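Running co-folding for magnesium ion.
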Amino acid sequence: MSGIEGARPYDALVLDLEGTICTISFVRDVLFPYASKRTEAFLRKNLHEPHIKEVIARIRADSAEEIAKGDRDVRSIGSNDEAAIGDIAKNVKYWTKKDLKIPGMKELQGHIWKEGYASGDLTAELFPDVMPVLKQLLVPIYTYSSGSREAQEQFLRHTKEGDAALYIRYKFSLADIGHKREHDSYVKLADAIGKPAQNILFVTDIEEEAAAARTAGMRALLMIRPGNLDLTQFARDNFECAYNLAAVLTKEDIERCYSLRQTPESDLLRAAIKSYRTPQKK
Ligand SMILES: [Mg+2]
């Protein structure tokens, strides 16, 4: 039995990041502006690195695609280096402002954040229940985020709570799975994990993502966190909802948690177990 009421056991857990294991604000107010401000300087410094050349080519293609779709605010990327840097920086600012999930930009952000974490400029922060729960789970855990794999890796490795990447088997991104509100992405995800969709539990803060996962046969849990958008009544009525990640613990996990020696971390865990349920799911 899972900690989620009425739920069957599951064999794999897939976690969203923003609004699920960390605040939306960290991503929007810290990470995005950090990358946006440093795009030009970063590109100038790393222009001749092969992996950055690939990112530039990707953004060039993404820009052409967005222009072809009719977005007249996107710049076509200039052919010489200096022009390309300026054009990419402008497009990154514009896409960031509109919160568009442009794959090339996501790749670039991942590389810029990597430098930020390495220099100590950036430190990620998880919701307090996350790390203690990750440590207790026996099923394989995956992430699926709009951020690139590198961005997820760096984020998870550099949290105030320690190295959370240790607990994640694989980090799926837009580049390998596709957009998070589309049915096909979750078919692909189950395929990549190698388990039947109905044995996979997907946790997110976004109703449309939960709905897309469910159409592919997955189970979905909606997370209610400080700073998230309010869920609709429809979402509250039709999905399992929880206030923290202790909701994914199975009955056996919970029993094990209660037998743990008392430490600040096991105290956090027990507090999370007591408080994950939403009023509708008593
Ligand atoms: Mg999210």
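Result summary
The two ends are 16 Å apart (CA to CA).
Residues 125 and 273 are 20 Å apart (CA to CA).
Job closed.
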